[in-house]
Amino acid sequence: MSKAILELNKMPNLCEECLFYKITGICDILSSKNHYMPVYTPPKNSRHPDCPLKEINSLTAGFTVIDNTTGEYPDTEKIALTEDWANKLIYCDIYGFALLEDGHMLLVDDCGNAVHCPPDRFKVIPIQSTIDLEKR
Questions:
Q1: CA distance 31 to 135
Q2: What is the pLDDT of residues 96-120, one digit of tens each?
Q3: Residue 120, exposed/middle/buried by CB under 10 A (0-12, 13-18, 19+)?
């Protein structure tokens, strides 16, 4: 199984702390994998057992994305405005791309909305460097 990376300021310990949690108790990231059928989060003070977010403690990793249609970094605002698959996003508030552990790529806005990207649309270029956590 492929590993994937989502860069967050803080790893959520509970569903309620997550960027993808909705006040209605629905997880956007799990719902998007479920063909946008709602996936409800468990009771307070826990995480959904299928949560794809896993913390990486010993590695600082990142990635950049190339749009295969242009050969350049994607214009995410234009994509959110003009492409049907991204029309659920707030075009002026795009957070960036996320890679899930199963290899699926999402485009995410700062409001917690996420959509799956078409499988062959983007090329992911990993950027990674190991760090010594004891020296930090």
A1: 39
A2: 888 887 778 899 988 888 999 998 9
A3: exposed
pLDDT in tens, 39-53: 888 887 888 888 888
Q: Which residues have a Cβ under 8 Å from the Cβ of 16 and sit 6 or more positions away?
A: 41, 44
Q: How many residues does the chain have?
A: 136
In angstroms, the CA 16 to CA 120 distance is: 32
- Counting other chains too, the contacts that 133-136 makes at CB distance below 8 Å and 24 or more residues apart are 133/57, 133/58
Task: Name 77's Cβ contacts closer than 8 Å, sequence gap at least 6.
Answer: 91, 92, 94
* Domain regions of the chain by residue span: 15-135
pTM over 0.70: no
